[in-house]
Design goal:
The complex is a heterodimer of chains A (about 240) and B (about 210). Chain A is globular. Chain A is about 10% helix and about 25% strand. In chain A, the strands form three sheets. A five-stranded mixed β-sheet of chain A has the order 4-3-8-9-10, with no helix packed on it. With about 240 residues, chain A is mainly beta. In chain A, strand 9, helix 3 and strand 10 form a beta-alpha-beta unit. The C terminus of chain A is likely disordered. Chain B is mostly beta strands. Chain B has a single domain, classed as Protocatechuate 3,4-Dioxygenase, subunit A. Classes of the chains: A mainly beta (about 240), B mainly beta (about 210). Chains A and B meet through helix 1, strand 1, helix 2, strand 3 and strand 9 of A and helix 1, strand 6, strand 7 and strand 12 of B. Bound molecules: fe (ii) ion. Fe (ii) ion binds next to strand 8 of chain A.
């Protein structure tokens, strides 16, 4: 297993800490330069989660909270692969997801949107990537929702993703959007990402080939985590 | 034109938003019965080796208000300085310690708490030791990309003074933002460690 340090993160590709159109970032963004830290074991290692972490319905948000029937909303499958920057599969990556229900309402005490809760929808799920990096889960299509930022800002339909790779330096949280949603290009959170090509990497296309006929449409969402150097050369330079 | 490196770009980060707890600590926010327990809620088992310690802190914004919607994760070595990870090649870490903790913080005070053990020293390059430390990762609404920082221990003055990372920090006045003082609280060694996102006492965050 190759276990070197990770390639430097391209900070110009990611959103900057301060993006004034997303108002909450104004007081929550560090202003000093980040201090560069060459990866040590503390960053190259990371927690490992096995199949024993998961329950049988963790990857099925249609069933994992259901009380007396299926949740309301279009049934979908989200699937894809977790790869690193060298296009190598990342097996055993823990993927946690959360989302609003079909009406755009989250199951959360602090949520005030007037759309109703769905008694059969919790909104959280998780899964582990397989040996080839592939993963999948089943859910319902989340609805767009308004949020307090500008006087009339709406989030495009989205699913939040949290991903653990093999090293803590790979830790990533992002959001998946759906092909064709006009709100994507009007959203101040999406627009924190400076490069249109980077935004497009978060938009999952409809995948008709993997659709289950008469049941659920599929969306394909590949995730790329940081790649890492081979240890061969690093060890030599360190003189170990 | 030159040949292509054929490298992919990392998926860009997006904020964890205000409802990160639904996905990462659902039991804390009232979504019960989906996951039996929240990931990283318990770092210790009775058999875990090492000195029991508690870490308490809050995350402050640039106006001095404590965040109530943050998620703090910690990653640390065991009492011997070994990581419970397949990438650890120096030996086998304590099988009764996961090294990973996650705290949603208290919904009203924003205070996060980790009951853990004090980690041993971990080597730097060329086998030089680093002072004992814990890696922290912070996400929240308004944070566009997760913030990496470290906690060092106030009672490790000699090790801290020799630490290759701490000693390299140019702005010496900022170093204390990484060091948590030790005190006895409720009969347990406790390290208070606040994180300041912005302003005069801004915590040092790392580009790792
Ligand atoms: Fe959201």
């Amino acid at each position: 297993m190759s276990a070197g340090s990770f390639y430097q993160r391209d900070r110009r590709w990611h959103p900057p800490a301060l993006s004034p159109a997303y108002k909450t970032s104004v007081t929550r963004s560090p202003q000093r330069a980040l201090v560069a830290l060459d990866n040590t074991l503390s960053e190259m290692t990371g927690p490992v989660f096995g199949q024993e972490t998961l329950g049988p319905l963790d990857d099925d948000m249609i069933r994992n909270f259901a009380k007396d029937g299926d949740p309301i909303g279009p049934r979908i499958i989200v699937h894809g692969r977790v790869l690193d920057e060298d296009a190598r599969p990342v097996p055993g990556a823990l993927i946690e997801v959360w989302q609003a229900n079909a009406g755009g309402r989250y199951r959360h005490k602090k949520e005030t949107y007037l759309a109703p809760l769905d008694p059969n929808f919790g909104g959280c799920g998780r899964t582990l990537s397989a040996e080839d990096g592939s993963y999948r889960f089943r859910t319902i299509m989340p609805g767009p929702y308004p949020w307090p930022n500008g006087p009339n800002d709406w989030r495009p339909a989205h699913i939040h993703f949290s991903i653990f790779g093999h090293g803590f330096a790979q830790r990533l949280i992002t959001q998946m959007y759906f092909e064709g949603d006009p709100l994507i290009w009007k959203c101040p959170i999406v627009s924190t990402i400076p490069d249109r090509a980077a935004i497009e990497r978060l938009i999952a296309p409809l995948d008709l080939a993997n659709t289950v006929p008469m049941d659920a449409r599929a969306y394909k969402f590949d995730i790329v985590l940081r790649g890492r150097r081979s240890t061969l050369f690093e060890n030599r330079m360190e003189g170990n | 034109m030159v040949q292509s490196l054929d490298r992919l770009k990392e998926s860009p980060s997006q904020t964890a938003g205000p409802y990160v707890h639904i996905g990462c600590t659902p039991n804390v926010c009232g979504i019960e019965g989906v996951f039996p327990r929240d990931l990283g809620a318990m770092m210790l088992q009775p058999e875990t080796r090492g000195e029991r310690i508690r870490i308490i802190g809050r995350v402050f914004d640039g106006v001095g208000i404590a965040l109530k919607d943050a998620l703090v994760e910690v990653w640390q070595a065991d009492a011997d300085g070994l990581y419970p990870s397949p990438q650890e090649t120096r030996g086998k870490a304590d099988p009764h310690f996961t090294g990973f903790g996650r705290s949603a913080g208290d919904m009203t005070s924003g205070e996060f708490t980790f009951d853990t053990i004090k980690p041993g020293a971990v080597p730097f390059k060329n086998s030089r030791p680093q002072a004992p430390h814990i890696t922290l990762w912070i996400v929240a609404r308004g944070i566009n990309i997760g913030l990496h920082t470290r906690l060092y221990f106030g009672d490790e003055e000699t090790a801290n003074a020799a630490d290759p990372i701490l000693s390299r920090i140019e702005h010496r006045s900022r170093v204390p933002t990484l060091i948590a003082p030790r005190a006895m609280e409720d009969g347990r060694p406790t390290y208070r460690h606040d994180i300041v996102l912005q302003g005069e006492k801004e915590t040092i965050f790392f580009d790792i």
